[in-house]
Amino acid sequence: MRLGKDLVAAVATPLVLSILAEGESYGYAISKRVTELSGGELEWDDGMLYPLLHRLERLGHVDAAWSVAETGRKRKHYTITEQGLAFLAEQRQQWEVVVRTLKKVWHDEGPTEGERR
Amino acid sequence: MTTISDADLEARIADWRAFVERRQTISASDADELEGHLRDQIDDLRAAGLSAEEAFLVAVKRLGALDHLSLEFARDYSTQLWKQLVGSPSPAPERSSLGDRRLLVALALGAGAGLAAKIPSLFSDVVSENSLIIFYLHNISFLVLPFMTAYFAWRRRLPARMLAVLAAAYVVAIVTVNLTPFDITGDGSTFVLTAIHLPVVMWLLIGLAYTAVGWNSSRARMDFIRFSGEWFIYYVLIALGGGVLCGLTIAVFSAVGAEEAAAEAIVTWVLPLGAAGATLVATWLVEAKQSVVENMAPVLTKIFTPLFTVLLLVFLVTLAWQPPVDVEREFLIIFDLLLLVVLALFLYSLSARDPQRPVGLFDRLQLVLLVAALAIDLYVLIAMVSRIGAFGFSANKIASLGLNIILLSNLAWSAVLLTGFLRGRRPITALEQWQTDYLPVYLVWAAIVALVFPLVL
To answer: Taking residues B252-259, what's their average pLDDT?
Structure first.
């Protein structure tokens, strides 16, 4: 499923930070992890990941360092910082409220048109 | 589907990369990162059974449209957004007419500023030359700077509330300055202090118009700091060129024995109109020809930061050797100037700094510069305070001491933040935030010195 632009922008930050909270990673691996986590249902342009990573780096939420992979390819590795972890914890609380609220309202409404059929 | 060889694939990746790098907002290191991503993706797709060509096409597609991407990169460094607008491969024709309109408005406002600066001097028959000079010293910023404010009010389409705030600030300043009875016959110190501090107040009000609705955002304020530096460079360049022009004019006319008439025309017309009008031309240039200065400014800071550091270190050593000398008030003003220059160097290299660049030698050098400046200033300040204790306060002493303390606090905390950044404990944005949060302090202090000092001291 292709998400709207605004939703991607909102989701991407906590998602990327959460993946980095699992351990250091690099761009391509992060985007593979997103596909894996969402079972391929979450699609966005991979390129968009990089401006986001750079923004997080500038804000001090992640650290970045270049290294050379065993294939001889240059790679920029990202690690989450203390500040990033704190920011993520905050984001997580907000998202939990959002998810809980949406679930509740959709549950109360009962099945949607499509589901009834 | 035709299959392509690995060499062909390499060639296609190289083409793709060249295409990416043509986007001005995507730097070489961004391109490295994107290329790494593309190659990883191609490897995976080929391992899954796709041909080289298919893998390449799918991988490129997955990265997304480059137009979109380069805009996204530009947004990250909001200050570079103009590159996207200027460097877009297909410039829309209506945009250039918009550029012309900006130039026309800037020129019209520049002419307005020139005339506004000139007109009061036409009354030289009615009032004495002395009172004219006094009038100019206090009112020149009211005559010229409203036109710059108006330019940004037009460019940013300021909301009515901000226009009202700006207008009110102008009225309060104009009324206060011109109704305050200044004692010119005494040492006239508050008169001079107002003349010096008023332009600072008015300049920061331009900042309000410049940043417009984003006045509270750190990025917008940093943009204004950058604008101020670039404006200054352009203005100095125009002034130098203007100086050459005036000098040559006089020289040429001296060949026909008319140098006095030429000099007279230059002093009474060309100089005032040109100096005032150039403020708007420089404003327009900063926006329209940004790439020119944007390349020059970092170079200037790179040249002068090491030189000033050496100067300060040598002076520090000299201070250690010499017994403490009497520090006069004039010296405190010199050290205020020194701190201002250090702050300007620091601010400007900060505003021109690529946020992605890792900690480097230059950042360390800046810390040395800051610490040396702080050490010297602290020494001077202690000497000064003991003298004030002995001789009492005056308006000048309070003004220079206040400025010194304001600059000292700024630089001291900057040094702390910079150390944090060098150790990787703080992001560079913390420094930006600090500097931009500090701007109102200058505004308030300059306003106090310019408008309140004459009333109470």
So the answer is: 87
List CB contacts (< 8 A) between B427 and chain A.
58-60, 83
Asked if residue A87 is part of any domain, the answer here is: yes
Domain extents in chain B: 6-87, 97-288+443-449, 291-426
Q: What is the DSSP letter of A2?
A: B
Rounded mean pLDDT of A98-102? 92
* Cα B269 to chain centroid, rounded: 29
Under the banding of pLDDT at 50, 70 and 90, the label for residue B428 is confident
Contact A45 B69 (CB under 8 A): yes
The A-side interface with B (CB below 8 A) comprises 26-28, 31-32, 44-48, 50-51, 54-55, 57-60, 63, 73-76, 83
Q: What is the CATH number of the domain that holds A73?
A: 1.10.10.10
Q: Which chain A residue has its CA at the smallest distance from B354's CA?
A: A58
The range of the structural domain enclosing residue A86 comes to 5-111
Largest CA distance in chain B: 94
Distances (CA, A) of A22 to A18, A25, B280, B379: 7, 9, 54, 51
Q: Do the domain assignments include residue A18?
A: yes
List pLDDT tens digits, range B348-378.
888 777 766 778 888 899 999 999 999 988 8
Alpha-carbon span B49 to A43, nearest angstrom = 22
Confidence of residue B99 (pLDDT cuts 50, 70, 90): low
Instruction: Kindly list the residues from chain B whose CB atom is less than 8 angstroms away from the CB atom of residue A48.
Output: 64, 68-69, 72
Structural contact between residues B294 and B352, judged by C-beta atoms closer than 8 angstroms: yes
Chain A, nearest residue to B37 by Cα: A28
Q: Which of B26, B76, B84, B421 to mutate to test the interface with A (most CBs of A within 10 A)?
A: B76
Residue A65, phi then psi, degrees to nearest 5 = -150, 140
Name the band, by pLDDT with cuts 50, 70 and 90, for residue A117: very low
Q: Domains in chain A: how many in total? A: 1
**Using the beta-carbon criterion (under 8 Å), do A45 and B424 form an inter-chain contact?**
no
- Residue A116 in any domain: the answer is no
Amino acid identity of B62? Answer: R
pTM: 0.66
Pairing of strands A25-26, A62-68: unpaired
Q: Is residue A16 part of a domain?
A: yes
Between the alpha carbon of residue B371 and those of residues B289, B376, B377, B407, the distances in Å are: 35, 9, 10, 13
User: Can you tell me the distance from the alpha carbon of A12 to that of A33, in angstroms, rounded to the nearest whole number?
Assistant: 13
Minimal Cβ distance to A50: which of B34, B44, B65: B34
Instruction: Look at A27 and B63 and tell me if their CB atoms are within 8 Å.
Output: no
d(CA A82, CA A17): 11
**Cβ-count burial of B447 within 10 angstroms (0-12 exposed, 13-18 middle, 19+ buried)?**
buried
**Prediction ipTM score:** 0.80
Residues from chain A that touch B44, judged by Cβ atoms under 8 A, are: 32
> Given A44, A55, A75, which is nearest B76 (Cβ)?
A55
Chain B environment of A75 (Cβ under 8 Å): 36
Q: State the nearest Cα–Cα gap between B6 and chain A, in angstroms.
A: 16
